[in-house]
Amino acid sequence: SVVGERAVDLAGLRVVVSAGGTREPLDPVRFLGNRSSGRQGVAVALAAADRGATVVLVAAHVDEGVLAEASAHSRITLEHAGTAAELQSAVTRAAAAADVVVMAAAVADFRADAVSPGKLTKESTGGEGLVLHLVETDDIVAGLVRDRRPDQTIVGFAAETPAEGETLLDRARSKASRKGVDLLAANEVGWERGFESTQNTLLIVDGTGTVVGEGSGTKRVVADVLWDCVANTRDEVNR
Ligand code: CTP
Ligand code: CA
To answer: Using an 8 Å Cβ cutoff, are 155 and 185 in contact?
Structure first.
């Protein structure tokens, strides 16, 4: 079906998208964060909603202004999450009623094992520098895969910095199988590429490592390529 000129091929689909970077507190004024702007995840949410899906967008830290269009969209419900643990509870709760979950958020892998109740000071560390003890956060997508219903599609994202002699596809394949996701969208990042940009290049593989899609252009354009892949995968499963 079509609204105006636009296909609403995802009408009725219930979607959860996480976006942006989590922030793990060290003390009341400091955190460990990452360079995710949230642009790609928000573009994924908008693309789905514009194509008729009902979307819960769980936003970790997202750059100023990036959320404006999504928060005004009639088919997007916006939720906020600060830490990996908060993101985990919001996504896991929303996933229970979702057909598709897209984990585009840059989730911290480590958090401080003890958050200082007061501000860390130079005085309190006595000129010796500061050693932080970090522990791993829960792997949210691993939990989603473990609890996946047969009709549910779990999509992971991977921002990779391939080493010499290694390709993005190698990395995407090994991560897709390690994570057990139905689809993995991989992009290359580095000091000068990937972050804050409005453009992206995505390579999309399925759980067996087969390339099912590739897209280059604005983050919205590649988001639509991703939804085409999701729709194809679900058609094949339901055939
Ligand atoms: N992810 C997650 N929970 C975490 C870390 C990552 O759900 N604690 C999700 C991300 O949202 C993404 C996928 O897992 O969809 C892959 O993230 P990535 O950081 O590439 O994978 P990791 O398993 O953390 O591996 P790496 O050591 O390469 O960071
Ligand atoms: Ca990680």
So the answer is: yes
Range 96-126 burial, b when 16+ CB lie within 10 A, else e: eebbbbbbbbbbbeebbeeeeeeeeeeeeee
Question: Predicted ipTM?
Answer: 0.99
Ligand nearest the Cα atom of residue 179: 1
Angle formed by the axes of helices 219-238 and 39-50, to 10°?
60
Q: How far is the CA of 202 from the centre of ligand 2 (A)?
A: 18
For residues 212 and 229, give the distance between their C-alpha atoms in angstroms, rounded to a whole number. Answer: 7
**What is the rounded distance in angstroms from the CA atom of residue 29 to the CA atom of residue 40?**
28
Residue among 17, 83, 109, 153 whose CB has most ligand 1 atoms within 8 A, to mutate: 109
How far is ligand 2, taken at its centre, from the CA of residue 137, in Å? 10
Question: 8: buried, middle or exposed (CB in 10 Å: 19+, 13-18, 0-12)?
Answer: middle
Q: Whose atoms come closest to the Cα of 91: which ligand? A: 1
The tens digit of pLDDT for each residue in 53-107 reads 999 999 999 999 999 999 999 999 999 999 999 999 999 999 999 999 999 999 9
pTM over 0.90: yes
- The amino acid present at 125, given as its one-letter code, is T
